[in-house]
Amino acid sequence: MVRRAWWAVVPLLVAGVTGCGAVIAPPLASGQAASINLSLTTVPTIRSVTISPGQASFSDCSKGDAVDNTKSTRRALGFPNGVCFVGSVTKQVFPITITNTGIASYIYVSGSGANPADLGTGWSLCTTRGLARCTGARHRPGADQYQVDNFSAFGTLTTGLTDAPRCDQRFGPGGSCWAVEGMWQKEGIKLIGPTTSSDTSTKWTVTITWTPVPQG
């Protein structure tokens, strides 16, 4: 009786084990996700300069021809080749402040043509050397030409600004124009007028521009 019962139970155990091995448990459900938002601050990357004041007028004019009644007055440019200033080289007066308000940059400077109030024929920039050379005697400006130089405590430009920006060598010592943020310089402007002007307007506008330029 006992042996028959033992052999009868074995197939049932084997069948039960085989059945359990075939069962696959369902995957667990995904949990609820959570996130964190992180803030980041970067240093400024803007290049900028400010010019103060935004407007100025030429004065302390000299030269010209008294015989033709075209000699300069204190606030009016004469012909030929009258000279006017914003500031003074001899008195070391530099009324224009250029400040680097952005990241470290080279400070470049350029000029523009002189424009008459009647929108007629303007004067072109000329220099004492280079492609836009002054055509007057002794490298002075010729007809409808003018020369503009900037000056500071570090000296005076004598060759003339061009309409192409270039390193402002009056900005720093040794001809350097490199400026870190907050660095500033005070400058003045010297203008030499043409021998003759095709336009008879007595009001003119001249623009000088300083531009921050990246290294390299």
List keywords for this structure.
216 residues; mainly beta; 4-stranded antiparallel beta sheet; 14 strands; elongated
Give a description of the structure.
There is one protein chain. By secondary structure, this protein is mainly β. It has one domain (49-213). Helix content is 9%, strand content 26%. The chain contains one helix and 14 strands, in the order αββββββββββββββ. The protein has one helix at residues 2-21, and strands at residues 49-52, 59-62, 83-86, 96-100, 105-110, 115-116, 124-125, 145-152, 155-156, 166-167, 178-179, 184-192, 204-205, 209-213. The strands form three sheets. Strands 1, 2, 3, 4, 7, 8, 9 and 12 form an eight-stranded mixed beta sheet that branches. Strands 5, 10, 11 and 14 form a four-stranded antiparallel beta sheet that branches. A hairpin with a 2-residue loop joins strand 8 (145-152) and strand 9 (155-156). It starts with a helix and ends with a strand. 25% of the residues are buried.
